[in-house]
Amino acid sequence: MKFITVRELKQKTSEIWKLVRNGQEMIITSNGRPVALLTKVSEDTFEEDLDIHRRARALKALDRIHRGSLDRETDQVTHDEIESEIKAARKKLERLSA
């Protein structure tokens, strides 16, 4: 995988498009930090590729949530404790909206 800067993308656009069309994936960086992934898609598989990308992002977010739960040790909360929290939050909302 090749790393390119935003400046390089602006200066060498046609060269970069050729590389991407040939299957080269690139990470675009700004101020030394990755900001985007440039990868080949085709008209025939575009929707499928987009769906796969979205699923991967969702799994990544779910993993982050899970790790956070482990770090805060909230992964051991029981179903009854969850229901109790929900009821308390609903009561608070009822009081605020009354």
The helix tally amounts to: 4
Alpha-beta classification? alpha+beta
| Main beta sheet strand tally, sense and closure | 3 strands, mixed
Calculate the mean pLDDT score and round it. 93
As a percent range, the share of strand residues is 15-25%
Radius of gyration: 22 Å
Order of strands across the main sheet = 1-2-3
3D shape:
elongated
First-residue to last-residue Cα separation: 58 Å
Total strand segments: 3
Fraction of residues in H or I helices: 55-70%
Order of helices and strands: EHHEEHH
Total individual domains: 2
Unreliable spans are none
Description of the molecule:
The structure is a single chain. By secondary structure, the chain is α+β, with helices and mostly antiparallel strands. It folds into 2 domains: 1-40, YefM-like fold; 43-98. The chain contains 4 helices and 3 strands. It has helices at 6-11, 13-21, 46-71, 79-97, and strands spanning 2-5, 26-30, 33-38. A 3-stranded mixed sheet has the order 1-2-3. A hairpin with a 2-residue loop joins strand 2 (26-30) and strand 3. The termini are far apart. The model has no long low-confidence stretch (mean pLDDT 93).
